[in-house]
Amino acid sequence: MCGIIGYTGKKKVKDILLNGLELLEYRGYDSAGVAVVDEKTKETSVYKCAGRVADLRAVCKKQEIEATCGIGHTRWATHGGVNDDNAHPHCFGKVTLVHNGIIENYRELAVEYALEGKLHSDTDTEIAAAVFDHFYEGDPIAGIKNAVDKLKGTFAFVIMFADRPETIYSVRNVSPIVAAKTPEGTMLASDVTAIGGYTKQYFAVPEYHILEMTKEELHLFDFDGKEVKPSYVEIDFALNVSEKEGFPFYMEKEIAEQPGVIADLIAGKTKEDLPDFTEEGVADQLLYECENVTIVACGSAMHAGLLGQSLMKSLAKVPVTVELASEFMYSDPVITNQTLVIAVSQSGETIDTLEALKYAKAQGAKALSIINVRGSSIARESEAVIYTNAGPEIAVASTKAYTSQLAVFCLLALRMAYVRGKLSLDETKNYVRELKKVPDAMKEILGEKEKIHHIADGILEAKDIFMIGRGLDYAIMMEGSLKLKEVSYIHSEAYASGELKHGPLALITSHTPVIAVATQEKLLSKEVSNIREVKSRGADVVLFAKERILKEAGREYMSFALPDVKDEFMCLVAAVALQLLAYYVSSDKGFDVDKPRNLAKVVTVE
Ligand code: F6R
Predict the structure, then answer these.
(1) Is 61 a residue of the active site?
(2) Is 2 considered catalytic here?
């Protein structure tokens, strides 16, 4: 993760760096820092601190900074705790640098270059700075290449050398860096968000190439020292910075946006009630020629994949596996040229998902991705991309991006079923008409959010919570449980209801909160029995179910009636209720809902 920005040009750099870091803060927010080159003395000064970019702003306010060249960093700690010393930039000898990634062989390097006693931090990054310094003999291109040859791991480095003032260098492996020439200087950043306000054209720095940025020009070199022409692309999408619009937190705002996002998504991806991905260039061939599908994703996106799996299996009758992207490569996956691999990612930058996709492609699979952020690394790596168009998601906990992934999977499963002859034209259209009822059902839940707030109050003090469901409801609960734990810090676990008696029931004691979702008619009687099992062991059950199911289950539970849509699409509706539950628990506990501890919005380390 970590956000990186760099600028050299005619403009004052302080605000460019601080504003850019604020835009990149979703990548990590435990420390922040800048290094700036004084216009007159050409000396480099570093200002950094543990805390948010706002804290760094306060540090910089006290300084007289007259500089037009500098680099900045917002950190998500990997090596070394969160403190001022471990914040970037790091300096060693003539080198000042910032880093995103992990240097795996940092211990060996520290020994090889006799760094004991010479370091000021506990980071792998400072060791890398020492290695760059060791190999720097006045030729930055040769020095960087020789140093990189020694490093193992993933990295995006942005480097300044003391005797090359106002020139910035960068090199990367896996972790992204984009760069651009603007009318008044040159810039780079971890992603386009931070440079979109200055230019409409940018390029992704290729892996194992060296970028050199002066105030007027930028040059790209391969590792043989040969100059390479950058491949510029247009930013053809809006980089709107979202406002809270009166909501106390982005998470609540983003939950509330879902009816509109899902309605627009369905409208944009259907023609005359038939799912249609032609505008995005997804050929039907991709959907009917594959023999099997493998979905790779992490976290909430993986949970969306689980629902996609159920729908594709039941509607299109295609064998589908869902793999945690972080485990994928190491699990000897069976991938052939008949496999369609679907990568799901809000950010489009998650390294595990990107690497899994690359691996599957190398085995011959066709690659389709479901992405929210346009122009992101995974989108660039895919043969076809379906954009979820959910708009910027600022809160770390995914809400509208997750439900928009679900909606894409609903339409994709239907299109697949249709082109593979498993659903007739009429059947497919009927499904789509039913799917169109989802936004109104979501609105209904939002209209009753105070009831969910009341339920949240009832579980505020819980230490452990169990979330149970069967079939699609189990997949929904995996997401509900993740949402709750990440923003409320309450330990919660999702279990397939039928599995309780195989172990976890031992943990159910008097007043353990158990949250159950029951939306699937065909599983109703079994689900109700499982709910009674926990109830009879003293659990406090909260039941989210359709009105009819609530009647069947009996009224003795704390409950919330979910509006009725077709069973296959109830996941979209239930998700909103569970998101609100997590949100209220977190906000009522007084937490920073949008920036949960230890997390970041974009996960670019393996
Ligand atoms: C949880 C959450 C994460 C992400 C995961 C993948 O609320 O947001 O679990 O879903 O880190 O991120 P993307 O979708 O950007 O690949």
Answers:
(1) no
(2) yes
